[in-house]
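Figure 3 (text version): structure tokens given as input.
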């Protein structure tokens, strides 16, 4: 939904009436939470069976059809082609898994992607995937990653008051975000090392899967005064003054990046492909990550080259990064590097909507 939000904002500003569809109730809830007011109405996406697709199109009668990132519906695309309704892939992205599947059935996927009027993709790598598949390059446009525009919109509208209340207290606060099993142990050791020179430091651990919070809390309790977020919010004695706080629900990590002093981004010391490093970067927060960043390889490369991100291999390097991040000149350097990165990469939603409207205008 974060990729759709800025596109919906641009379409709404252009006076277009949008019907948005999701496949789940959670998707519907997210759509109204992020983009309520930017679309005319919501429907659940029709089952991709020809007779149901025809009935849905008869009811909605769209001027154009947009699908986002990896959502491909063959029956819908075929019926749109028969009705001469333009179809657009927005923020198209193709993982290595997708590429492997496509190579096994290239003719099928060439036909499916060929049904789109225009394929708007994030990067030259995504474009190469399509051209290697046999799609003509005039049907493909590289517009950038709309998710970056959505991220910046989310940052601008964020209310950090709750995050500040969670952190409270004094002294530097380090954050290990979206961690996987094995990474909390490294972060706790880095925290132990940092406290040798920063005795008032505190640590927040946000496991990627909140259901692991009890397990993470047990490890944290062996090192210091540890609490879990639900205890803090309920005002229980167990949630009193803490040195280590474990996050046990989703929806708070992004705002915490806006109020902490430095971070480690998980899924990267263990081979999970890395988690979203653009979230801390949006706040200009100094952060580090491990070597396994294939899911965010381009962002990690560009942010690293600019000095907005650092790669670490172990607890000692993580501790050093956190301590160095408290140095004001270092913080200013990271903030400036992050601003430069987003200045270079933002604007995909505007390019996307301009391409779509230009084709719609031609009828």
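Below: residues designed for each position.
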């Amino acid at each position: 939904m974060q990729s759709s939000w800025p596109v919906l904002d641009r379409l709404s500003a252009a006076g277009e009436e949008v019907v948005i569809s999701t496949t789940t109730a959670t998707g519907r809830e997210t759509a109204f939470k992020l983009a309520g007011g930017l679309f005319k109405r919501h429907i659940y996406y029709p089952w991709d069976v020809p007779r149901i697709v025809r009935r849905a199109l008869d009811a909605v009668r769209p001027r154009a059809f947009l699908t986002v990132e990896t959502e491909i519906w063959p029956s819908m695309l075929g019926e749109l082609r028969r009705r001469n309704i333009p179809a657009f892939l927005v923020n198209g992205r193709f993982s290595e898994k997708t590429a492997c599947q496509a190579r096994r059935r290239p003719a099928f996927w060439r036909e499916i992607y060929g049904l789109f009027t225009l394929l708007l993709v994030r990067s030259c790598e995504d474009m190469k995937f399509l051209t290697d598949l046999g799609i003509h390059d005039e049907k493909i446009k590289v517009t950038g990653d709309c998710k970056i525009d959505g991220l910046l919109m989310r940052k601008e509208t964020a209310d950090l008051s709750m995050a500040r209340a969670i952190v409270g207290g004094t002294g530097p606060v380090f954050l290990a975000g979206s961690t996987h099993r094995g990474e909390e142990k490294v972060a706790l050791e880095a925290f132990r090392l940092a406290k040798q020179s920063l005795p008032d430091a505190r640590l927040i651990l946000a496991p990627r899967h909140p259901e692991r919070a009890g397990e993470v809390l047990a490890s944290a309790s062996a090192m210091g005064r540890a609490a879990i977020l639900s205890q803090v919010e309920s005002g229980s004695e167990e949630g009193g003054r803490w040195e280590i706080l474990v996050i046990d629900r989703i929806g708070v990590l992004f705002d915490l990046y806006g109020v902490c002093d430095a971070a480690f981004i998980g899924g990267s010391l263990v081979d999970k492909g890395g988690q979203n490093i653009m979230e801390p970067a949006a706040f200009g927060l100094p952060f580090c990550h491990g070597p396994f960043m294939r899911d965010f390889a381009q962002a990690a490369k560009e942010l690293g080259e600019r000095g907005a991100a650092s790669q670490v291999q172990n607890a000692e390097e993580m501790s050093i990064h956190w301590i160095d991040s408290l140095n004001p000149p270092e913080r200013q350097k990271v903030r400036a590097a992050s601003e430069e990165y987003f200045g270079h990469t933002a604007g995909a939603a505007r390019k996307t909507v301009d391409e779509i409207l230009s084709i719609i205008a031609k009828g």
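The chain has a mean pLDDT of 93.
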